[in-house]
Each structure stands twice: as C-alpha cells, then as structure tokens.
Design goal:
Blueprint (H helix, E strand, L loop, with lengths): L4 E8 L2 H13 L5 E14 L2 E15 L3 H11 L8 E4 L5 H12 L4
Antiparallel strand pairs: 1-3, 1-4, 2-3
C-alpha cells in the first residue's frame, strides 16, 4: 500500500520562494505536507563551473500518481532554469500517516 506514496525533493534559492512554492503545492492539493529545511549548502556543477549556494530544501509528501502534475507545477513556478525535482518512493510508513496524506489530497479545498 505505501508504494503509492512518494517523497519529492526540491531545492529553492530563498525562504520566500520555498514558502510560496510550498503553499501553492498544498493549496492545489498536490501534497499533504511540505517541510522546508532552511540553510542547506549546495555544491554543484553548472555550466562548467563548481558553484556553491545556500538553499532551502523542500520535502514534499504526496501520492505517486500526483508526481507528474506536481513536477509541472514546480517547473511553472520555480525561478531556476533547471529545478531539482527528485521523486523517491515510500516503501513503508505509518499507515495512519499515509491515510492522512490521502485524506488531505482527496478532500475538498477550503
């Protein structure tokens, strides 16, 4: 049952961007919850150079069948030319928590 759920990782350049994107995702019921981990340091290769930036990491809890529309929303609203969007299947989780994810995604918007 839990394999129908996934965790999507996405980095953002600022607190403001992370908060705005997280609220958009949850309000459109593409995820039940988004955690924002502030102050991560990312070291990466971009255009032939090694870059270092401070970013915020989004941990997005959702159902696997929403991964594609979630990816589309992130690409539409994200300021990066190439945003990080990595989906990791959830192989096990608290049954109550996973049911809560389903309820949040399938409940009518308030």
């Amino acid at each position: 049952m839990s394999e129908q759920y996934c965790l999507v990782l996405c980095t953002c350049p600022t607190d403001n961007t992370a908060t705005r994107l997280a609220k958009e995702i949850v309000s459109r019921q593409l995820a039940a919850c988004v955690n924002i981990l502030p102050g991560i340091t990312s070291i990466y290769s971009w255009n032939g150079k090694i870059e270092t930036d401070q970013e915020q990491l989004l941990l997005i809890k959702t159902q696997s069948d929403l991964a594609t529309p979630l990816e589309a929303l992130i690409k539409e609203h994200h300021p990066y030319e190439l945003p990080e969007i990595i989906t990791v299947p959830i192989s096990h989780g608290s049954i109550e928590y996973l049911h809560w994810i389903t309820q949040c995604i399938n409940s009518p918007s308030e």
